[in-house]
């Protein structure tokens, strides 16, 4: 499981985040996206070293980059026009999703430093901290970003506006509830999983029904279809696992979840979604949040 999780996290650090930054703001975050792989190298390297001072120092370098990225969120919030002046809102659903994406890697970076140092941050087991790293690269960063993109693209589609707003609010909300569930109990985490799954299934439905038919080539359409189909299965697994943890019912092991839910979300959803959105028409790219 460890090797698989490390490979998934490496993908998130080196490709997923810089690709996502280009979708968030192709102009404003262009420089950050270009240098991000270099900033992420220490984080990727520390995964493959034994816990200790060197691994912790490398993790801290990556965490500093994620905190600098999180600092972009308040600045973006302040410069987002309000409804009376420009027709936008810093609290619009798509914008909330994007702000969540900017903040999420810092949670992963902080957990990484603690795990590499062998420090049980907030009393959590090191295995929990290790799994927090991929969770907030993919469920935190990528899922929130894609929810925001789908919300913005589908906002004007007939019948899609309400569902797209629900997706853009519930994916960040569900991610936050899952995080809070770590501090409360398994039932609170289950509630977060329910909300997050509902939001992700809404993203899958909107992607399949409204975004995919507008793809101008077969490759983009296939990538969108794959991302939507994978979400249905992987989030069903997430619900099964959270329900089992809360009730004691039989459920997948952590190792099995990493090999199915984790790998499916990383490759089938996150990677396919980002590749598809980068291939979408320039005019749609301009409508990204």
TrEMBL record:
Keywords associated with the record: Membrane, Transmembrane, Transmembrane helix
Transmembrane spans: 6-24, 56-75, 96-114, 134-154, 166-184, 190-208, 220-243, 255-277
Domain of life assignment: Bacteria
Name of the protein in its database record: YndJ-like protein
A family per Pfam: YndJ
Native species: Streptomyces roseus
Entry-linked InterPro entries: YndJ-like
Keyword GTP-binding: no
